[in-house]
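Students often ask what a holo structure prediction actually looks like on paper. The answer is less mysterious than it sounds. You provide the chain, you provide the ligand, and the output is a string of discrete structure tokens encoding the 3D arrangement of the protein together with pyridoxal-5'-phosphate.
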Amino acid sequence: MLRIPYGRQSINEADIEAVVEVLRSDWLTQGPAIERFEQAVADYCGAKYAVAVNSATSALHLAALAAGLETDNLLWTSPNTFVASANCGIYCGANVDFVDIDPRTYNLSLEKLAEKLHNGKIYNQLPQVIIPVHFAGQPVPMRDLYELVKDYEITIIEDAAHAIGGSYLAQKIGSCQYSEMTVFSFHPVKIITSGEGGIITTNREDLYEKLIRLRSHGITRKQELMTEPAHGPWYYQQIELGFNYRMTDIQAALGYSQLQRIDQFVARRRELAERYNRLLAGLPLILPWQHPDSLSAYHLYVIRLQTAVLRKSHRQVFEELRQLGIGVNLHYIPVHLQPYYRRLGFREGDFPEAERYYQEAISLPIYYELTDAQQDQVIAALNQVIA
Ligand SMILES: *Cc1c(COP(=O)(O)O)cnc(C)c1O
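The corresponding structure tokens follow.
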């Protein structure tokens, strides 16, 4: 039986045509497709600037550097995320810590954050950067988070790898109304894809200029930033240490073409989520609760098993669904329990809500091209397994 995956991209003829067009053009990288894509994402999100890079992991790294994160600083994020949200702090030489999750949204808990900030102030352990992750596509209540953080010198970077197309208080995620920068991923399982790719949106010109420079080796051609007059028209200077994190025009053209269908993609995901909500309502499951201020992009649809009333273990249910051809997945193994982070001193029990969630969560298939009939197959399998 062909397995129904938990997520997959949707590529149409217009996407293919857009990529072929770049291949026939003069620019495969650092050409006009990049700026066009950046402008389109900035406009879509309602931000002033966007900087395209080769992955969201690179985007998080650059955003943390642009925020000034450095050796022995501190970064806080959610334990219920992909490892990249935390690793970006380590890349900068900073220490990483986590804020346990809200048991309803599975996002970083604002109550826990308030508590941790209070203690951090007493013990002089405050972070320079906080990275809220809009888990499954559901935005963290950013205005409330901003209110908690605004009296400290903390830079907020939104990890919105799941959330392009989502909105909060009627504003698109990526508008950076309550943050300095927002990061999106264009990996094929995410809402729109460029193959690999990521982008950072911001409203601050200084951050924009810094991100552009760090993306390409720390090199500038701006006279006002140079230490001496240009030697000639060929001249450039490397004024800081940057990387090659550039996106290609091939990727940007695909991303731009995909962006034309983003609202369609998100609308279908919402429809599928509502259908799951309706058709799974009678089962011993916890369905994804939605914060009234947030409109999810539904990158993921996560159910939690009420293991106390089931005769099967979480693992058994997961394996039996896989055997029935349902490509279920689990997002996420708590980051602090990864061997790398355990070696840094984290232990089981450090973030109990995230750990409890991990014992019960299963991601069901959700993506634009999933048909009602395929979704019915998922629901039937689930009924069969947990009946
Ligand atoms: C996918 C993902 C990333 C990393 O994205 P890449 O583009 O694959 O580097 C970061 N954070 C979260 C929450 C993600 O889901």
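The first strand starts at residue 49 and ends at 53.
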